[in-house]
């Protein structure tokens, strides 16, 4: 799936995370098992640090359950 620069610009405006950092994280995600709870916790913690947004343990558990149970929206572009 190819994303436009407009997509990355919207993410950067909302999160202050630049395109290269997003692409680096995407590569890391592709190399790991997204159904693995440990991998997901690491990714959530990295994103939390990158964006400066604190994620409570309850929020982290909800995110992990959503990903593991395929409850994540398929159209990522509409999330931003």
SSE blueprint and pairings:
Blueprint: H1 5-15, H2 19-30, H3 37-51, H4 57-68
Helix pairs in contact: 3-4
**What are the segments in which pLDDT stays under 50 over at least 5 consecutive residues?**
none
* Rounded radius of gyration (Å): 13 Å
Quick one: how many beta strands? 0
| End-to-end separation | 16 Å
Q: How would you spell out the order of helices and strands?
A: HHHH
**Structural class by helix and strand composition:** mainly alpha
Indicate the mean pLDDT: 84
Helical coverage, percent range? 55-70%
Largest sheet: none
The number of domains is 1
Summarize the structure.
This protein is mainly α. The protein is built from four helices and no strands.
Give an account of the 3D structure:
This protein is mainly alpha-helical and 80 residues long. The chain has one domain (5-79). Helices cover 62% and strands 0% of the residues. It has helices spanning 5-15, 19-30, 37-51, 57-68. α3 packs across α4 (57-68). The longest helix is centred in the middle third of the chain and has 15 residues, at 37-51. The mean pLDDT is 84.
Key descriptive features of the protein:
single chain; 80 residues; mainly alpha; globular
């Amino acid at each position: 799936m190819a994303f436009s620069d407009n997509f990355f610009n919207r993410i950067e405006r909302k999160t202050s995370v630049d395109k290269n950092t997003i692409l680096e994280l995407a590569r890391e995600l592709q190399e790991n098992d997204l159904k693995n709870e440990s991998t997901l916790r690491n990714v959530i913690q990295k994103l939390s640090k990158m964006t400066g947004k604190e994620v409570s343990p309850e929020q982290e558990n909800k995110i992990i359950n959503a990903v593991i149970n395929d409850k994540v929206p398929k159209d990522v572009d509409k999330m931003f």
